Amino acid sequence: MYTAGIDIGSITTKAALFKYGKLAATKLIFTGYNSEAAGKKIFTEILQEAGLKESEHIKVVSTGYGRGSVSFADKAITEITCHAAGARYLNNTIRFIIDIGGQDSKAILLDENGKVKNFVMNDKCAAGTGRFLEVMARALEIDLDKFGALSLKSQKPAPISSLCTVFAESEVISLISKGVAREDIAAGIHESIATRVSALAARAGLTVPVMITGGVAKNIGAVKALEKALNINTIISEHAQLTGAIGAAVLAQNLK
Amino acid sequence: MAEEKDPEKEKRKIKSVKKMKDIMTTYYIEAKMAEQTGKKVAWITSGGPVEPLIAMDVIPVYPENHGAMIGASKMGIDLCQKAEAMNYSSDLCSYARSDISCATVNGGPIGGLPKPDMLICCNNICGTVLKWYEVQARYFNVPLFILDTPFCHTQFTDEARKYVRKQIEEYILFLEDVCAKKMDHDRMKEVGKISVEGQRLWQAVLDTAQNKPAPLSAFDAFFHLALIVTLRGTKLAVDYYKELLAEMKQRIADGIGAVANEKYRLLWDNLPIWYRTKWLSEKFAAADACLVADTYTSAWCGALKYIDENNFLESMAEGYSRIYLNIGIDEMAREVIKMVDKYDVDGLVMHSNRSCKPYSFGQLDIQRIVRKERGLPSLMIEADMVDERFFSESQIATRIDAFMELVRERKGA
């Protein structure tokens, strides 16, 4: 018995395939401009890898911003509910999730049974999201992969005060022109996102243990800054970026 | 081929809508013809004391109601941008922006409001109206009366009562001066009684939503509200709400709900998102949710407890001061909790309205208090009542979907 979860985000599309309730395969591609095509492509690819045919009956749950564009999905469920299910599958003690994705960040409080109790999302702007980090890494001409590690070298983070991504970018450019060290600017940027996201976490009712999910969980600088801002340790799964897709595949098991 | 009507949808339509549209059309035509008919026109804020105007036979016109019409007609962006080109900040209230620019171009859905003979501004709803009305008083070169209602943090003091009462006397003198005639106090008493009757009927209409399923939703209330705002104190409003109430009672008897399959009942906070009421109402209805009540439309009957219909002028000082937007956060939260209980709701939907600072400020506290006292889930939608540039559909859709998953889970469906 197979189920699949497809998470179409603003930047990447993720898929998870479950066999008899266990994670069997995962896949990640760029979404590009056509989310419907991305959904079809990733589904075909993950099935191929698992040696399955599309004709086989597989329950599919779609999630993420493109959840409505997956025509072959049996159900669309929001990423809030899917991240909750995914996080609990990865670690069944989790009570709180901080998900920093491409175009939004969310703080999700779970009850003792792993059900969503409360959630808060960022206001509709790029500050405090993965996109913010992308823009800043580009301004500093650093690979996104190395951005977080670089920030950890800083002894003196340069404060970034603008809340707006566009203004923050010009602030960064003026810091560059003043000759401020790259790692200090990078650290300031990560502190800025951490401050923003920790306010969301406080509003949602921060409770330990906390898991960080979404693409930004791969960024060690953001994780460390967030742990410092929240004054807690966090749990990060190797499947952080796939949590939504995994949760969708978990929830697909409940479909009749 | 004639368009086939869905009988299910037809059944759910509120019949009084047509009459309301006719009344509002006639009202605006009469207001626009005031110059020919020799009547005076006063522009007044939505929370302002309209009854003395009715008693003096002055036609009240509401820039805020006009703003709602501009928003609902999706003409907000254009007019807001015009105001920004006139050097008004995009942070300024979108009602104020669209009204200020509309006056200069006679734009909007009805070709602009009739020129005012006077302006009546009451700051019980916000502070923006003070500057907004000063701008318009200069533009039209007409007298402006400001009624200053002190903010009621925890109570309405005797000093405040005297202070507002004194201003009401000045208000009447102002009207007598502009209209060049004396106030007929018997008529004023009569108008006061009719106003209270209208407000009671409006409350009774809203109360019918206690029924399961609710015969009307907040989206319906947003529409039917127009008369209690604009024509409060007239027989017309009383007669209309009697009919509407009868229709609601009939719907209850016939088991007709505003939403086809009402499973979840929600409470709305803040002004409507005028250009998206249809989208929102369909979005919630698709999730079997009905917004059964709201803090906004009930603001036009919420101060009834302070008003003595037999002593209207005396008591209206308190009634107009203690409206929902002019009280402290703790009291607002208590009001919300009362509504949560009264309408038996499963969740709270809050519109954080970029335009309306006094309404939106404190929402996080109210949310927290309601969660603590009643354990209800709540949703925050960030948008604006008129300026569509502040509405992001896919992000709001995700929040609503996630919120409904939470509400459904909690109700154990």
Could you describe the 3D structure shown?
The complex is a heterodimer of chains A (256) and B (413). By secondary structure, chain A is of the alpha/beta class. Chain A folds into 2 domains: 1-91 and 241-256, ATPase, nucleotide binding domain (Nucleotidyltransferase, domain 5), CATH 3.30.420.40; 93-236, ATPase, nucleotide binding domain (Nucleotidyltransferase, domain 5, 2-Layer Sandwich), CATH 3.30.420.40. Chain A is 40% helix and 21% strand. Chain A has 8 helices and 10 strands. Chain A has helices at residues 35-50, 79-90, 130-139, 144-151, 165-177, 182-204, 220-230, 243-252, and strands spanning 2-8, 12-19, 22-30, 59-63, 75-76, 96-100, 105-110, 116-121, 210-213, 234-235. In chain A, helix 7 links the parallel strand 9 and strand 10 (234-235). In chain A, helix 3 packs parallel to helix 5, helix 3 (130-139) runs antiparallel to helix 6 and helix 6 (182-204) packs across helix 7 (220-230). Chain A is globular and about 60 Å long. The two termini of chain A are 13 Å apart. In chain B, helix 4 links the parallel strand 1 and strand 2. In chain B, helix 9 (158-179) packs across helix 15, helix 10 packs parallel to helix 13 and helix 16 crosses helix 18 (363-374). The longest helix of chain B is centred in the middle third of the chain and has 23 residues, at 185-207. In chain B, the strands form 2 sheets. In chain B, strands 2-1-3-4 form a 4-stranded parallel sheet, with helices on both faces. A 4-stranded parallel sheet of chain B has the order 6-5-7-8, with helices on both faces. Chain B has 19 helices and 8 strands. Chain B is globular. With 413 residues, chain B is an alpha/beta fold. Chain B has one domain (15-411): Rossmann fold (3-Layer(aba) Sandwich). Chain B is 54% helix and 10% strand. The interface between A and B is medium-sized, with 19 and 16 residues.
